[in-house]
Amino acid sequence: MTGPVAATLAMALGFVAVHVFVGRLTFLDVVPRSRWLSFAGGVAVGYVFLHIMPELGAHAAAFSAGTGYATPVAEAAVYTLALAGLVLFYGAERAIIVSRGMRRAKEGRDRPERGMFRLHIGASALLIFVIAYLLNHREDATVPGLALYFVAMALHFITADYGVRCHHPELYDRQGRWILAAATLAGWGAGVAVALPQVAIGGLFAFIGGAIVLVVLKEELPEERKSYFLPFVGGAVLYAILAAGELYLVA
pLDDT tens for residues 186-208? Predict the structure, then answer.
């Protein structure tokens, strides 16, 4: 196994650990919302805007070259995929919230219907598969670049998995975490075995960018979350400092 592949496997196993053990992070289960979750959300959003969004410009150029479309059309197509990621996960989240409210009203149980668990885990597994696939297909394959990707995505998974587990605690602990762990390893394996064209890689980056923004903001914005602004900003600022440090090292 080559060095970079071994490194990305170690990162994938780190992601697996988050999925499997997030339920044991008892310090997250507090009211008001844990400051650590707000901090993790800030880091993930910082990654989207300081890494994924700038990279979309490069991928739009590759899309233009690969398809022959004019640059404005190529850019619009790439950002449409980011919008699609946001809309898809917004739709899934709304369906789960509606189902939870209807079941609470009818049965007095504060849980979504079982079918909503499959929808939630399926959407999460799709996103996780893509993120793990991209471990081996980063535009910035340097050690600092991979490290920043790993840290940002691991913190994003803490936020996202915590949100899934809040909706389906028993099902997540019994089944969901293992499905997400399997999706991680499958995505990493696919990344090693299959190299997609740069046009497709750009589309995947755009898709996860939109999805991550939605997942983080839906965890931070609702009033009942009682989330924290300063830790969120702190996470974003810290990530910005780390990203600036990476640029300095590369330069």
Answer: 999 999 999 888 778 888 888 88
